[in-house]
Amino acid sequence: MRTALFLAATAAFLTPATAGAQAALRVQPLSVDVASPSQATAITLQNNGNEAISLQMRVFEWSQADGQDQLTPTTEVVASPPVAKIAPGSSYTVRIARTAGAVAAGSEASYRLWIDELPPATERRNEGAQVAVRMRFDLPVFFHGADTSPKLSWNARKADGALVLDATNSGSRHARIEGLQLREGDDVVSFGNGLNGYVLANSTRRWTAPAGSATALEGGSATVVTGIGDDESRQAIALAD
User: Fold this and answer.
1) What pLDDT sits at residue 123?
2) How many domains does the chain have?
3) Of 127, 164, 175, 217, which residue is 20 to 30 A from 102 by alpha carbon distance?
4) DSSP letters along 54-116, please?
5) Does the predicted TM-score (pTM) go above 0.90?
């Protein structure tokens, strides 16, 4: 049986494992998007610190179930090499390749790449089998065929004093969501500034505003607002109780 990891909604690509951690590692780019017939690309890791850093790379198949992200270990996409040690001031290239063949036209395959900075070997030995991660970069990885595009529809409801917002993507390509809000006149409920996450192709993604947020919108309709600046889009929806 495959082991699955269920992740709560997160907008950050960079996750500090300890409070106040200083990131010496720089990753470029912060997302990977490969169009068929290509089946591989590369990312660059740069150590801007004063000490060598040890890294491990892991790839997960990325799907969405019950409105939440689900990650499953996979060998369909590999990071090569899977481990690296980078000297101070040095750069390192990691190849990302899909071994399952090119993605068909009109479809997209989604993955997440975890790049973990590990503590020194002496600390890992002291911890036994439990290895702490100093810093984690969590990158979206997409392989897509020709003729793909997202197609979103929204549904909002009140539940136990909170607002629950679902986005269903009936299209063949992921949708990137940022600046997500529900508005009713001058009243606004925000689901977080900046990047809110992704709605994968043929999937549903759910966001829940804090408890008590439902009282901010009293009517039976609202407007979903996504995007920032010139990329802002609006869609009127019914607000179910």
Assistant:
1) 61
2) 2
3) 175
4) EEEEEEEEEEEETTEEEEEE-SSEEEESSEEEE-TT-EEEEEEEESS-PPPTT-EEEEEEEEE
5) no
